[in-house]
């Protein structure tokens, strides 16, 4: 594996890099061929040489990494071949450029010579023509004519040579060049031949030029030859280019071989590595198995016999302790090893637990004693029943004072029902007399579903309040409170109230009887005074009459209040026209309003219609509010307004009496509806009245299921608002008529 | 002229009401206790009785019951007059056999109306 990753893979990677370098060279080669100046060739050659050197150095580096000599040889052959080819190509290109330059030079020279010959030819032609036109037809003229023809031919041949020159330079094949060479020779021969007829003076000149031209064209290193070599070089270049491709392919093939080798190497080493791993796993497993086996053997043979036995003993003791058995035997402390120390620690733990348990027991006992004492000395009877309804504990008060006739039964384990039945059968509870079973049934119902406390009256007349509660564990706690004294006080209070009411009623009766005479006789005297025309008696009689009526009013109010207190005020509701009732009350109050120069107004109340109410009491409330407003207002305005309104889904009558009188402070308002209260005690002297009116109003409103409230500001005035529920006339006639 | 038997133990009240009724043209005879009243009702043939309820001895309720039990005089209208103003007072009076009820102090005009109603 290491061999693969450390050597073969890097070698393959380097070979791939080398292959890419070879490709770069092959791709650069055609570019080299296209070069056509010496300078460019120089630069490109240098670049190519550098690339080749790089390729070679890569090969050198690879050699150290590749250990397969055959593959390396292949690669080296390919690389050498490629390098050689490319270098050759560069050299060839140099040669081609030299040849091309030479061809250009020759071409220029030949053209030069052709041009010179052509000029001489032209000059000769001119001379000949002059000779021909200046003389008589003669031999000389014929000669000139003949010369002129030769010159003309020569010119044509020279033109042919120029054409040949162009053809040569662009000739594409070797065979073409041989034909060209032959033609050139022929033309030059003809030229030389043609020269024979020319003036010997410049025949030599032209001949020299012609032979030079022939040399430059057709002989060795002549133009044709050069062109021939140029073509050969081009062919060489194409071949070399092909060869470089082949060499590159060879390099690539060699590199592929290397890479494949590397891949194969990787696969092989992977397979080998897996083999090695399997082998290792098996070896490890075997070793572990053997280790475990050995451990087990050691534990079984050695530890098991000497340690486990003691540990088992310890564990048994611990379990016993945990289960609460603090007296369980503990293993001996034994040798001073870990197990010995553990046994010692367990002993300490056990001793501490014993101490703590004793302390706990003492505390529990103390708490129990305190609780028992508290329960025992409680002034209330106490009994606790368990979930099976059996007596668990009770105190002395319960046993001895409350149910003294049950001493034989009141002990732990007796069921509640047995106790209840016995107390009924033995006549201990007054309510159970002559209906024992029924009473027991009712009592058990109360006991099973404890709610509000209930009362029992014992045979001895004592009243017991029984409060029962369920405990969390399904039992019942019962507390029995002797409320005989409370009951007596309640009864005394009720009796006192009754006595007070009775007293007031009697007083009322006793007061009314003489008052009847006073008022009646006063009225009699008033009649007399009027009949006998004695006006001087009118005022004193009126005063007696008024005082009598006032006294009567007081007595009525006191009586009302006592009736309300005694719960003896009965409502006698009937269908009444509220508007009429209100108008009548206003009419009654009007003289009172006028006394203080007040304006009394009734606002619209027509929407109230007929209502079901006690007219006497309603009138009493209305009149009271009106007379108060009139009394406490001077030269002001008193407005009465009534409306029907819906509140909480019920119809209400709202009666409002508003005045612009003296008003009250908030403190005065709070005392306003109390009995015998007039805001200012001097007010009763000024305004008269008992101070009971509003207290009675409040109670009447409450009796009617409504309310009264006041909103007042000193110096501004007061507004009294009465709200009464508007109930429909019931279908059963005469509610409260009995 | 209607004849009214007024049974009342309080002299001031007797004086006051007798005087006022006589001025209105009634003939008034007076008894001061229940038994006397019943005897006068039998012997004097009054047209109407005004019965105070809180009488010494035989009280007004009992006297009325006895009157209603006596075939000779059971037809006589009885107007109860009481200084008791408790709400059940009226019921008690009617229950005892009285035809109507009024309270003291007397509202004279109202009393006259009630008398007129009973006599008609």
Q: What keywords describe this structure?
A:
heterodimer, A: about 750 residues, alpha+beta, five-stranded antiparallel sheet, five-stranded mixed sheet, about 70% helix, about 10% strand, elongated, disordered C terminus, B: about 120 residues, alpha/beta, five-stranded parallel sheet, 5 strands
Major beta sheet summary of chain A: 5 strands, antiparallel
User: Averaged pLDDT of chain A, please?
Assistant: 81
Percent in helix of chain A? 55-70%
* Share of residues in strands of chain A: 5-15%
- Measured between the Cα atoms of the first and last residue of chain A, the distance is 121 Å
What is the approximate shape of chain B? globular
Q: Could you tell me the mean pLDDT of chain B?
A: 92
Strand tally of chain B: 5
SS element count, helices of chain A: 18
Give the ordered list of helices and strands of chain B. Answer: EHEHEHEHEH
The largest β sheet of chain B comes out as:
5 strands, parallel
Distance, first to last CA of chain B: 13 Å
Tell me the Rg of chain A in angstroms: 76 Å
Query: What structural category arises from helix and sheet content of chain B?
Result: alpha/beta
What spatial form of chain A do the alpha-carbon principal axes imply? elongated
Low-confidence stretches of chain A: 731-738
Compressed to H and E, one letter per element, the order of chain A equals HHHHHHHHEEHHHEEEHHEHEEHEEHHHEE
Structural class of chain A: alpha+beta
